[in-house]
Amino acid sequence: MPRFSIIVPSHGVAGRLSQALDSVLAQSFGDFELIPVCDAADCPAAAVAARYAERDCRVAPVTSPPTDGAAGARNAGLRAALGDWVLFLDGDDELVPGALAALDARLDETGDVDVLYFEHERTPWWVGEPTNPAAPVLARAPRGAFPPALAPGLTGVELPAWSAAYRRAFLTERQLSFPAGHFTDIGFGGLVALAAERMAVLRQVVVRHLLRRQGNRLSLPGEHHFELLDQVEALLAHAAGQELPGDRFGRLFEQLFAAVLKTAARPRRLPRGRRAFFRRAGGLYRRYRPAGFRMPGGSLGVQHRLLARGAYGAFRALRGVNQLAARVACAVPRPRGLRTRLRYRWQLRRPLDPNLAVYCAYWGRGYLCNPAAIHAKARELAPHRRSVFLVEPDAVGRVPEDVEYAVIGSRKYWDVLARATYLINNANFADAVVKRPGSVHLSTQHGTPLKKMGADQSTYPVVAAATGSFARLLARVDRWDYNLTSNRHSTEMWESAFPSAHEPLEYGYPRNDVYCTATADDVTRVRRELGVPEGKKALLYAPTHRDHATGFETGLDLEALCEEIGDEYVVLLRAHYFYDRGTARGTGRIIDVTGHLSTEDVCLAADALITDYSSIMFDYANLDRPIVVYADDWDVYRELRGVYFDLMKSPPGRVTRTPEELAAVFRDGSWADEEAGALRAAFRERFCQFDDGRAAERVVRRVLLGEPPEALPPVIPLAERSPAPAATTLVRN
Questions:
Q1: Does the predicted TM-score (pTM) go above 0.70?
Q2: pLDDT at 580
Q3: Which residues pair with 537 in a beta bridge?
């Protein structure tokens, strides 16, 4: 039987779960079991937990449906626990080094207590000094083990569930579990303190709690705040039934109503029903107020008196909540030009157009990428939706004739942005765009992340300087309702890079549908359009952008490579789109395809891919064709740009470091041998999970048609997909 059972609910924190689990497994004290609680066996967090369970027998994941909330997840973990002591750790928290050893030593000192409270550190997600709110709560507790009567202020409702260790036999004997609903920590903490006979404290930080950028879920607006009163009423009724001494009952009453008043004083938390909340809270106050209870002094005391009298109007005036409207009025969007700004503001006052969808790709470069693929499928499945593509003036000529568009910055541009119900982008809309209630923003992304992205870039000076204001970046992210991913890796990394309340859609990238739907004729047509000579093997060379470099440098002598590998090959050169200047760089056997709008066409035409660290490798892998990595500056790139995993240890094919090595793999055939195929298969298994040819359909049905997730086409298993055939395969056949 282990000394500790550590229960880790993981709903919505797949991107940080590994850090929580690592913090436990790295403890010097190893007598524990680690129980991650996942929504389901196929959810993002379950994949993370499964990897840890394979490596360490102490990790034993269990499941609990997300509809059961945090309470259900913790209770599921508690039912599975076998340890003498139980700890709860949120999926985005960490145990500090040496935490379990300190707890073990303290429990040896205190003997057989029911609950051991300890300190925790709240760390701002971005910048700021950590705080230790538990320290003053625990400061006045006796030094050794003690009965609750000696520490009446330690009611349990001021501390989260993960700021204590609980004797499992005590919880089982008293049948203590987390009450359902929101504010379950208050209910559980109070019940534990009321039932405990012996307590102790450890004046040392055990848990490091990372404050979420989007704030505590319990602080978000909604009717769930009425559940706070449910927990308060249940606890006070339970305490009254125990006939607690006056000092203990009084402290419990005071702390519970401090939480109630904190909610009542924040109008954002209760968009509706504030008066009803106040009225019910006042009734509970009058019913359970202990005899001889002395109200606090100062402004808090005034609030107590107003609550006791049910004087909602006076309470509302005291708190000055009308200032909220003034703050909202100041948040005026800033499109350029006074007349345009005023027109946009006027359009924002008009109702949303329920059938208007606005699309944009790569900041207006044209009809491209995931937005274009979704747009095309929407015209088939949702023809009643009016679709407008946003483009820069110089991209107008590249928009298909039958696609409605608006030039960025024009009146039409601001008009459709103001009234669209659906806004779909593979990057972000302008800062001035207002997220209107009822509108739906979908971020489609435009690649699988190898390099660090979003907020994760902040610790890399070169890229951070180029990114600009992270506050503005994340303000744009806050508008997202959905974020599209093509594999579980992306789901986890986007959660870390773009912390906000959006929902991930694991549907695949619509632009990659063509890799499963294109035919041999399509491949032949594209090769002819690009000028690939018949019978030649086309190698696509697609290097990524270097943040530390200025201008485009291939880093590779392509003409020399062609000479080395023989005349059966031609090279398709595709520079990063940052360097598309409309001028061809190719000569002879080098065909410059940088200016060709469709990356998907270029990939279909290529028999193999040569790249360094470009995300094109993840998309190209869907074709199940050879990939060769040319990593001549991997160490520099990794240090300056930051990466999410070591590509050298998990490559999609052969890895080369020098021009000579690159030429050699093509001369000896190892670029397409059995070992290269095995590396590619493992890579595809990890990164081609959801790209099955039906991603666009899933997106349109869910986002534009509002169909429930269970009604969408399921993802076709990787082994059952048929990628578009390569041209050289056709020639051999």
A1: yes
A2: 44
A3: 569
Q: Which residues contact 493 (CB under 8 A, 6 or more apart)?
A: 15, 449, 453, 456, 644
Q: Are 374 and 424 in contact (CB under 8 A)?
A: yes
Q: Dihedral, CA atoms, 238, 241, 242, 246, nearest 10 degrees?
A: 90
The pLDDT, as a whole number, for residue 43 is 86
In degrees and rounded to multiples of 5, residue 717 shows phi and psi of: -55, 150
CA dihedral 507, 508, 510, 513 (to 10 degrees): -120
Measured between its terminal Cα atoms, the distance across the chain in Å is 63
- In this structure, are residues 84 and 167 in contact, taking their beta carbons and an 8 Å threshold? yes
Chain length of the chain: 733
pLDDT of residue 41: 83
Cβ pair 612, 544 in contact under 8 A: yes
User: H/E element holding 196?
Assistant: none
Q: What integer pLDDT is reported at residue 280 of this predicted model? A: 94
Q: Hey, how many other C-beta atoms are within 10 angstroms of the C-beta on 215?
A: 11
Pick from 456, 604, 457: nearest CA to 525:
604
Phi/psi at 390 (5° precision): -95, 130
Q: If we measure between CA atoms, which residue out of 690, 378, 696, 723 comes closest to residue 510? A: 696
Beta bridge partners of 358: 388, 423
**C-alpha radius of gyration, the chain, whole number:** 30
Round to whole Å and give the CA distance between 383 and 353: 15
Distance in angstroms (rounded) separating the CA atoms of residues 290 and 573: 80
Supply the pLDDT for residue 342. Answer: 83
pLDDT at 328: 44
Q: Which of the 8 DSSP states describes residue 644? A: S
Taking alpha carbons only, the member of 692, 696, 731 closest to residue 517 is: 692
Structure tokens at 211: 């404050």
Residues 6+ apart with CB under 8 A from 349: none
Helices H / strands E in the chain, number of each: 29, 21
The closest of 721, 538, 524 to 624, measured between CA atoms, is: 721
Q: Which residues of the chain have pLDDT under 50?
A: 321-332, 578-585, 730-733
CA–chain centroid gap for 328, Å, is 27
Q: What digits encode the pLDDT tens for the residues 559-618?
A: 999 999 988 999 999 886 544 444 444 567 899 998 888 999 999 999 999 999 999 999
